[in-house]
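To the wet lab folks,

You asked to see what we're planning to order before we commit. Fair enough. Below is the target structure as tokens, and below that is the sequence we designed to fit it. If anything looks off to you, flag it before the synthesis order goes out.
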């Protein structure tokens, strides 16, 4: 019996572009080539960053690309109760604390590997008098989290030195991605996470939360992230072009090439069904470049 369960978890901040298409194609082919299920999760937990209509548009584009998902779509916007329950469990273990710091108050802190400020622990032992709690952070200790990524190899991170106590409930009242992703990967029974390497530095935080909450740790495979000529990750902010729904095969073929797969021949002009037949028969994760980023075509 095959237990592989993969997923694609887009944030509806804009239409599907080449960078997100790579994550969709990589996670889809890895799941399907192993006879597994491919689930979808809409990571709509951050309304200020979302674009109206983007979630529907992403689904439409996936369908136009011939990528059907298994089961019901999970919407993070409907999952607050589960996030609240997870936070309550950490509270019961005394692993979280309220934090009153504004960004300005910690702006002098060092930067971690993902460019975020390392929290200096100001509120760790209680709020200074007169301070009002804003966010909730989880305590981290000086332990190195280590895991083996299928593509990126051994990854190690000292959470205390490189990240610091991190936010689980934001000052604007929204749950943080790091908490939501571990709760939802478990709820969807995900055994294998395939996503862009821009999230590689977040993975030790997620493994740490899984351990605290007694949740299973899936296997991880981080694909090279697509970057533009300036080395920036493709995103709405960098004005990445949407995937063409009327003619998706050229972009799909480019995604395969980006992922190091066998020469495409004439597949750019192949009908969709023929493209997928070829892609499934030829997919080999061993061929993916073992780097964190690559220039987009
Ligand atoms: N929602 C995230 C994104 O679109 C991906 C999260 C994940 O795959 O864990 O970048």
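Sequence we intend to order:
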């Amino acid at each position: 019996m095959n237990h592989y369960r993969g997923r694609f978890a887009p944030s509806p901040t804009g239409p599907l572009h080449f960078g997100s298409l790579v994550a969709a194609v990589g996670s889809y082919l890895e799941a399907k080539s192993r006879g597994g299920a491919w689930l979808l999760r809409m990571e709509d937990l951050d309304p200020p960053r979302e674009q109206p209509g983007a979630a529907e548009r992403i689904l439409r584009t996936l369908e136009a690309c011939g990528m059907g998902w298994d089961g019901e779509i999970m919407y993070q916007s409907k999952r607050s109760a589960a996030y609240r329950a997870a936070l309550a469990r950490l509270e019961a273990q005394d692993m979280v604390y309220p934090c009153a710091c504004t960004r300005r108050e910690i702006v002098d802190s060092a930067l971690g590997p993902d460019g975020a400020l390392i929290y200096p622990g100001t509120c760790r032992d209680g709020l200074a008098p007169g301070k009002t709690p804003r966010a909730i952070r989880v305590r981290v200790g000086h332990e190195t989290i280590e895991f083996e990524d299928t593509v990126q190899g051994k990854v190690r991170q000292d959470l205390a030195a490189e990240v610091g106590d991190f936010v689980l409930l934001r000052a604007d009242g929204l749950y943080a991605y790091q908490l939501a992703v571990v709760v939802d990967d478990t709820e969807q029974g995900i055994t294998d996470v395939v996503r862009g390497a821009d999230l590689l530095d977040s993975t030790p935080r997620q493994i740490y939360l899984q351990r605290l909450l007694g949740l299973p740790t899936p296997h991880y495979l981080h694909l090279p992230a697509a970057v533009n000529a300036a080395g920036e990750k493709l995103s709405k902010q960098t004005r990445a072009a949407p995937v063409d729904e009327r003619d998706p095969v050229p972009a799909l073929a480019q995604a395969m090439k980006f992922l190091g797969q066998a020469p495409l021949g004439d597949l750019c002009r192949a009908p969709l069904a023929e493209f997928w037949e070829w892609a499934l028969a030829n997919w080999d994760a061993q061929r993916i470049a073992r780097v964190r980023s690559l220039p987009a075509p």
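Structural context that might help your review: Residues 9-11, 43, 181, 195, 199 surround glutamic acid (CB under 6 Å). The first strand starts at residue 5 and ends at 8.

Thanks,
Computational group
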